[in-house]
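Q: How would the C-alpha cells look for this protein?
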Amino acid sequence: MKITYKQVEDLQGYGNNNKIHSERQIKLIGESIKEYGFKQPIVIDRYDVIVAGHGRVEAAKLIGMEQLPCIVADDLTELQIRSYRIADNKLSALADWDEEALKIELEDISKVVDLGGLGFDSTESSVLPNINSSDTDIELIEEEDIDMSYNFIIKCADITELRDLQTKLNTDVDETKQVLKVKYADLVL
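A: Here is the predicted structure in C-alpha cell form.
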C-alpha cells in the first residue's frame, strides 16, 4: 500500500456521496485531527475523486490543512469503488459497543479527556460516567418529572441533527417538526 500526499484542493468529492456529515461531526473530526494527527489516509480513485474520507477532507479544510495522505485505489474497478464507498460507511455502522468495556475506558480517560470531543453526548448516559464537554449541557430528566404544561423548543443546527432527534423520538421528520412546532434551534427549557 503506497501513501501519496495530495493537495486538499485537488481532491474532489464524489458527486453521489450518500453519507451526510453534519457541521458538528466535521468540527469534531477536525478537533480529533488536531489532537491525534491525521492517522487515516483518504482513499481516492485514479482521478483524485474521494472514495472514502469525505468527512476527514472537509475537517482538514476547516482546520487549514494543505496536504493529506492518500491511498489511490487504482486496483479496483469502477463498480468495486462504488461498492466500497457504501461498504466503508455501512459495515462500521453494523458494529455494537461493548458497553461495559466502553464504560471502563471512558471512566478512566474522562479524568483528562473531554468526552464531548469524542462524539459522545448526554443521550448516551448509560455508558458515560461524566461529561465534561462545554458542547453538551443537556440534563437528562425522568418523564414523570416533566410538567407538560410548558412548551419545549428544540433548535437543531442542521437537518442531520433534526434526523437524529427524529430517530430518538421514533417519528418521521415532518411529525417531529409538527410535534415540536420548530424547524431548527438549540435546546431551550
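The chain is about 35% helix and 10% strand.

The beta strands are 3-7, 42-44, 50-52, 67-72.

Upvote if useful.
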